[in-house]
Amino acid sequence: xxxxxxxxxxxxxxxxxxxxxxxxxxxxxxxxxxxxxxxxxxxxxxxxxxxxxxxxxxxxxxxxxx
Length: 66
What we know:
Order of helices and strands: EHEEH
Radius of gyration: 13 Å
Number of strands: 3
C-alpha cells in the first residue's frame, strides 16, 4: 500500500527527517513528498498505517459515490 499524490497520482517518497520530524515520527507519522509536484504531506506509517487502512479504503472508494 503506497501513498499517492492527489494531484498527479505518482507514488510519494519519504523526506529526510529534521529535528521536528523525529518528534512527529514517534507519533506515527512521516513526511512524504511528490517527486513530480514537490508537495509535502504527513502520512501515517507502521502500526498506525495498518490501523487506519480500512478508513483510508472507505474514504477513497466510497466517498466519491453519489
